[in-house]
Structures are given as C-alpha cells and as structure tokens.
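hiii so um. not sure if this is the right channel but i have a protein structure encoded as tokens and i wanna go backwards to a sequence. like what aa goes where. can anyone help
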C-alpha cells in the first residue's frame, strides 16, 4: 500500500513538472514552425456591405487570426489609419485571403498585416510540422514514463 502511494506521489510530482514546463515547450515548437512576416500596402475598396478582401503574399500559418495584426494604413473613410481591425478579420480557407468587415461602404483602404508564415525549413521537411505539433504531448508522456520508472525503482529499493 505504501509503495503505491509513494509511486503515485512520484508520478504526480513528475506530471506537475511536465505541466509547468508545457507552455514553454508549446511556445518553442510554435516558434520553430513559424516565421514572422509583414505585408504592407495591401489595398482594397469596400463593397456596399462594408467588406473587402486582401491577399497575403504567403499563407498565414493558422486558420484563424492567431499571431496576426491587421492595421489600417490609409483610409478614405472610417476606420482611421492606425486602427487595429484584427477582430473584424476572417482568414480564408487557403489562409492567404483575408476578409475585412465593418468598413465604410465604397471606402478605399490600404492595410499593413503582421502575421506568422510557415517556416521554410519546416515546410520542406516531410512530417516535421506534424512532429512539432505533437511535441508537447510527447514531452508530457516522456515525463510520465520517467516518473513511473524512477518512482517505481526508488520505491522498490526503499521498501525492500
């Protein structure tokens, strides 16, 4: 009974260390998969419903606006230059076309977009992106296995 409790304690301790370091591992893998990119001067004219589409030079890494900032550079109508309109932006299926909403109908605009593009080395390496997506899970599983092995070995020595 006591061996089981001690082994469980070792497992919980290793799991808590793994969870504590997981955000750092997730950030490092995201940084390895992406490169920062800036597209400036992307022009469009809003339609009658106040929407317009702009096309990025390279696709955005994510299917949503994660890691993206869309800012009005010049405008003939509201919103004024310098306004961040990321929350009114939708990323298209191909991740290169952005739909901007809530603009003034028939207004002429240019936009600056800061976004994350797929890292060139990660894009060319077969399976690397999938591996980097799974890295946080692999890290947690490795910590749990080490916790069970070390915890079990140390407990068996103590209570022999």
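sure thing!! here u go:
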């Amino acid at each position: 009974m006591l061996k089981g409790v001690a082994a469980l304690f070792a497992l919980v301790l290793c799991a808590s260390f793994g969870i504590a370091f997981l955000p750092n591992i997730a950030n490092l893998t995201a940084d390895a998969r992406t490169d920062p990119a800036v597209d400036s001067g992307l022009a469009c004219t809003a339609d009658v419903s106040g929407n317009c589409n702009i096309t990025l030079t390279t696709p955005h890494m994510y299917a949503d606006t994660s890691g993206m900032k869309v800012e009005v550079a010049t405008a003939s109508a509201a919103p004024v230059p310098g306004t961040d309109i990321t929350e009114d932006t939708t990323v298209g299926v191909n991740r290169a076309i952005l739909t901007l909403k809530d603009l003034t109908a028939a207004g002429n605009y240019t936009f600056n977009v800061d976004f994350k593009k797929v890292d060139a080395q990660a894009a060319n390496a077969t399976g690397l992106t999938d591996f980097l997506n799974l890295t946080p899970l692999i890290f947690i599983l490795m910590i749990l296995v080490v916790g069970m092995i070390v915890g079990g070995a140390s407990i068996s020595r103590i209570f022999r």
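oh and The chain is about 40% helix and 25% strand.
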